[in-house]
């Protein structure tokens, strides 16, 4: 390109003569000034990031005791997390029939940021004693390193004899089909340690649990209840009080 | 409301087929109802805290946007004294370079500045503006593409309808036909980006790679790309060019 070639030529001239032509000198100066501005911007961006983290950290601390209080209340609602999980449009689909049986032993889900928010977080499924595995806690952790990489680690599940849902074809029940079809178990999620990509896109399950289910599981828990109630046509059970689907009577 | 909740709970009990069937006493239902109400209260509390947190984060971002604004202005002025700065930076960016045709390059020589600006409240959108000096290609002195984010993930995209001068419309093959003659279909011009205002796929969410690159990559630090190109030229020049790519002649 013409302009660049002339730029090149001018710079060469500068070297030869050793004395800055006004235009050359200006160009050099401009680029140096630009470099300084970029450094100034970078400092500001770092400051902004720091301030944002400070806010997030502060509010994490504010939320922590509230989540603890919430956990206590939830203990009085049987099958709360199970129901909420199953009612979530995306999460519910991830549980195979066998998974659902295992999940009946799931007591609670906990999402916890590392002390330093920037460093990462973990998602833990708490289980009571059950016939499937020895563990009472299954955790998956995401640790963010400086260079933008994420270190992912998940509990290595200690399956009881013959109960390993991840071993091909073992306990997977196919609904009467003769095909050796193995339904993917949700529990394989704990083994998935591959980073999705370096720009920080994590697996969807983690994102959904952390950003959607954890902040407000009641929304999904209630969904299920309302569905049974208002979903007139599908409901074989008596819903005497409402009678909304019963058009024989008076008004709507 | 409490009664309604109790009714719903009874239905849910049947639906869930869980421990309730064994313990379906009024006493337990009552406790359950109270627990769920307490839970709702806590959720309301959490929501308030979350909203407060979001507001505070937004405040920080707005504050730093204001701090950056005059710096970007100063930067623009300095860039005016560096010929073809933005063009060079574009051509050095691996993705953007591929989108620029030879004809586009001629037009971009008239590009004097780029401006990326968030809306005042940061979250509702931003615009990307290309400012041009008077040129033989179009009447406009600036071409802008604007992105407005609404609730429920809806994005409204608008772009300047370029007022091409006669026979100069590269986006629709005008000049290409003149130059290449027989080819009916020419390479897509970068400038067609300004008329791409359809949101590709609502389900996938907002995606405009060029916008993202300009806003998140080139705009924050174009010098990084400019220098890349600068150093390429220096390396090509065997007769006394700098190796470390700095454009000083020492």
UniProtKB/TrEMBL annotation, chain B:
The keyword Chaperone applies. Residues 32-63 form a coiled coil. GO terms for molecular function: histone binding. Residues 233-250 have a biased composition (Acidic residues). Keywords: Chaperone, Coiled coil. Gene3D superfamilies: 1.20.5.1500, Nucleosome assembly protein (3.30.1120.90). Residues 228-250 are annotated as: Disordered. It holds the Pfam family NAP. GO terms for cellular component: nucleus. GO terms for biological process: double-strand break repair via homologous recombination; nucleosome assembly. Belongs to the nucleosome assembly protein (NAP) family. This is NAP1-related protein 2. It comes from Zingiber officinale. The lineage of its organism: Eukaryota, Viridiplantae, Streptophyta, Embryophyta, Tracheophyta.
């Amino acid at each position: 390109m013409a302009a660049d070639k002339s730029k090149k030529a001018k710079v060469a001239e500068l070297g030869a003569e050793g004395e800055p032509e006004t235009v050359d000198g200006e160009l050099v100066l401009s680029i140096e000034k630009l470099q300084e501005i970029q450094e100034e911007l970078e400092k500001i961006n770092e400051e902004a990031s720091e301030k944002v983290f400070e806010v997030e950290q502060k509010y994490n601390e504010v939320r922590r005791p509230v989540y603890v209080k919430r956990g206590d209340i939830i203990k009085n609602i049987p099958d709360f997390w199970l129901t909420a999980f199953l009612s979530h449009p995306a999460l519910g689909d991830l549980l195979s029939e066998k998974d659902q049986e295992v999940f009946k032993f799931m007591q609670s889900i906990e999402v916890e940021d590392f002390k330093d928010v920037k460093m990462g977080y973990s998602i833990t499924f708490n289980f009571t004693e059950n016939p499937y595995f020895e563990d009472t806690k299954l955790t998956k952790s995401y640790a963010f390193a400086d260079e933008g990489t994420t270190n992912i680690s998940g509990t290595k599940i200690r399956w009881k004899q013959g109960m390993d849902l991840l071993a091909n074809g073992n306990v997977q029940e196919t609904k009467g089909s003769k095909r050796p079809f193995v339904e993917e178990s949700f529990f394989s999620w704990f083994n998935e340690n591959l980073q999705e990509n370096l720009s920080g896109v994590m697996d969807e399950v983690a994102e959904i649990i952390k950003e959607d289910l954890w902040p407000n599981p009641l929304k999904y828990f209630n969904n299920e209840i309302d569905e049974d109630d208002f979903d007139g046509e599908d409901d074989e059970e008596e819903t005497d009080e409402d009678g909304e689907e019963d058009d024989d009577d008076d008004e709507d | 409301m409490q009664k309604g909740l109790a009714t719903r709970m009874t239905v849910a009990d049947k639906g869930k087929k869980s421990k309730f069937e064994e313990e379906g006493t009024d006493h337990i239902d009552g406790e359950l109802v109270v627990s769920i109400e307490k839970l709702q209260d806590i959720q309301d509390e959490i929501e308030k805290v979350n909203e407060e947190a979001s507001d505070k984060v937004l405040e920080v971002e707005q504050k730093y946007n204001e701090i950056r604004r005059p710096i970007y202005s100063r930067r623009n002025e300095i860039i005016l004294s560096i010929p073809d700065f933005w063009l060079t930076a574009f051509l050095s960016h691996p993705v953007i370079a591929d989108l620029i045709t030879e004809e586009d390059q001629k037009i971009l020589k008239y590009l004097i500045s780029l401006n990326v600006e968030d809306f005042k409240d940061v979250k509702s959108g931003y615009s990307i503006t290309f400012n041009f000096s008077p040129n033989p290609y179009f009447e406009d002195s600036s071409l802008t593409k604007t992105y407005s984010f609404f609730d429920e993930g809806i994005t409204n995209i608008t772009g300047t309808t370029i007022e091409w001068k006669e026979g100069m419309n590269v986006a629709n093959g005008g000049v290409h036909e003149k130059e290449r003659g027989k080819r009916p279909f020419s390479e897509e011009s970068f400038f067609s980006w300004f008329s791409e205002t359809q949101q590709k796929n609502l389900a996938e969410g907002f995606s405009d790679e060029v916008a993202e690159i300009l806003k998140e990559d080139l705009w924050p630090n174009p010098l990084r790309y400019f220098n890349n190109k600068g150093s390429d030229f220096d390396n090509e020049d065997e007769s006394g060019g700098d190796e470390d790519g700095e454009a000083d002649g020492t």
